[in-house]
Specification:
With 87 residues, the protein is mostly helical. The chain has one domain. 66% of the residues lie in helices and 0% in strands. It contains 4 helices and no strands.
Length: 87
C-alpha cells in the first residue's frame, strides 16, 4: 500500500464510529484520489492535488461534525465526581 492510500485508510479506521453508509461515496472518492496521488509519484497534477485536498477536507468535516464519544470516567475520584455532577 502506498503512502496516500495508507494514510487515508488509517484516517478512515480511526474515525470508523463517525462514518456510516451515507458516506460511502465520499470514502470511495477519497480512496480513488489517494490511489491516483500514489500513482502520480512526486509530481501530481495541480488539478489532482486540489481534488484530493478538497476530498480530504470534506472527510475531515464529516468526522468533525460527528458527536464525540463520551468517555467513561475511570474509577476513583473521577468516578465520584461524575456521580455527583462535579468536575
Amino acid at each position: 500500500m502506498d503512502a496516500h492510500l495508507a494514510a487515508v485508510e488509517a484516517s478512515i479506521t480511526a474515525a470508523a464510529d463517525a462514518l456510516n453508509g451515507r458516506h460511502a461515496a465520499l470514502l470511495q472518492l477519497v480512496r480513488t484520489l489517494a490511489r491516483q496521488m500514489d500513482a502520480a509519484g512526486a509530481d501530481p497534477s495541480t488539478r489532482l492535488s486540489a481534488a484530493y485536498l478538497s476530498a480530504l477536507k470534506d472527510l475531515g468535516r464529516v468526522i468533525a461534525a460527528s458527536p464525540a464519544k463520551a468517555t467513561q470516567p475511570r474509577n476513583g475520584l473521577a468516578a465520584a465526581r461524575a456521580i455527583h455532577g462535579r468536575r
